[in-house]
Amino acid sequence: MHASNTDFPTMDDRFIWDIWLSSVQLPTVLAADELGIFDLLGRQPATADALARELGLNAQALVGVLPLLVGLGLLTHHLGRFGLTEAGRLYLRHDGPFYWGEALGVMRTPVVALLCDALRDPTERRHYQMAQDWTEGRIDKDAATAVARLMHAQSRPAALGLAATGAFAGVTRLLDVGGGSGCFSLALAKRHPTMRCTVMELPGMCEVVAGYVNEAGFGRQVASQAVDMFAEAWPRGHDAILLSNILHDWDPATNAQLLIEALRALPAGGRLFVHEMLLDDDGAGPLAAAAFSVMLLLATGGRQYSARELAAMLTEAGFTDVGVSPAYGYYALITARKP
C-alpha cells in the first residue's frame, strides 16, 4: 500500500535527490575524459558548438552535459565559453602532472558508454526506448505500473509542496498533462476541495492512475482521460493546465508544439503552470539540475532548462504574464496566462 496522500514530509527531499543524482557524476566525468573534452579545453576555452565541431559531438546533447562538469568544479563558464578550472587542469588532462583518469576508470560502469553514444549521436534511440514508446502512444500495463511507481516515489513530496504554495488558488478545473501516478492532482485536490482535476495520460497509464486515485479516496475530484498528447487534441473545459516534469523530456522544437497545444486547450485568461528544476540562466548549474539533465539525456534525450529559456518558449507560444517562483525542494514554478 502507498502512504496516505494526506501526509506531509517533515523535511524536504533535496538530500535524497542528491544521493540519487550522484550516480551520474562519475560516469559524466569519465565520458568527458574519453571523448577528449578536458584535453581540448586544456588547450583553449570553447563554446559548446565549437567543442561539438572539434570532437564530432552533438551540440544539443553536449549542452545537457557541460553544466554538470561546471557544477562539479571541473569547468569554468564565462560569456558562453567553457574552460578548465585548476582542478580540471591538474587532474583530468591526459598530459597533466597528476592525471587521475586511470584511477577513476576503475569505477567505470555501462552508463559511460551510453553517455558517449548519446553525445556522439542522440538520434540513436536504443537508450531512449521509454521515450520512443511514449511519443508513439504505446505503453503496456507492466511498463505503466513501473513508470507510475517511479514517478510517485520521486514526485510525491514535490507534489505536496507545490500544492502548499497556494499558487493554484482560484483554479476550478485542472488538466494535469502527463500526470503519471496522479500524485500532483491528488495533492492539489486535497488542498483545494472544490477543484476538479483530470489526469491526461496514455491509456495504459490511466488504468494505473485509477488505482492511486481510488486508494487515496479522491474519485469524486480526480479522474483520468486517455489522450496521446502528441497526436490528439487536448481536452477543453479546464481553466488551468499543469505541465510537471514534462518539458524537460523533450527538445525545444517538441516543447514548442506542446505549448501551442496547451494554448489552444485553454480559454482566454486560462493559466498554465510549468513545474521543473531550473538550470541557472547562464546554463552553468546548479549541481542538482545539471545532474538531472544528464539523467534525462540518457532516459529521453531531454534536459533541464533555465527560467529564461522556458519564459522564451512560453512567450513564443503566445502566453503572457510569465513569472517564476520557488516551489519545493529543488523545484520552481513558472506561471503564465493565455491572453
Automatic annotation (TrEMBL):
Pfam families documented for this protein = Dimerisation (PF08100), Methyltransf_2 (PF00891)
- Domain O-methyltransferase dimerisation, chain residue ranges per copy: 28-93
UniProt cross-references to PROSITE patterns, sorted A to Z: SAM_OMT_II (PS51683)
Q: Which organism is it from?
A: Solidesulfovibrio fructosivorans JJ]
| Residues at the catalytic site | 248 (proton acceptor)
Q: Which residues form the O-methyltransferase C-terminal domain?
A: 133-319
Q: What is this protein called?
A: O-methyltransferase family 2
One Gene Ontology MF term: protein dimerization activity
> What phylogenetic lineage does the species belong to?
Bacteria, Pseudomonadati, Thermodesulfobacteriota, Desulfovibrionia, Desulfovibrionales
| Any single biological process term in GO | methylation
Q: Which InterPro entries match?
A: COMT-like, COMT_C, COMT_dimerisation, SAM-dependent_MTases_sf, WH-like_DNA-bd_sf, WH_DNA-bd_sf
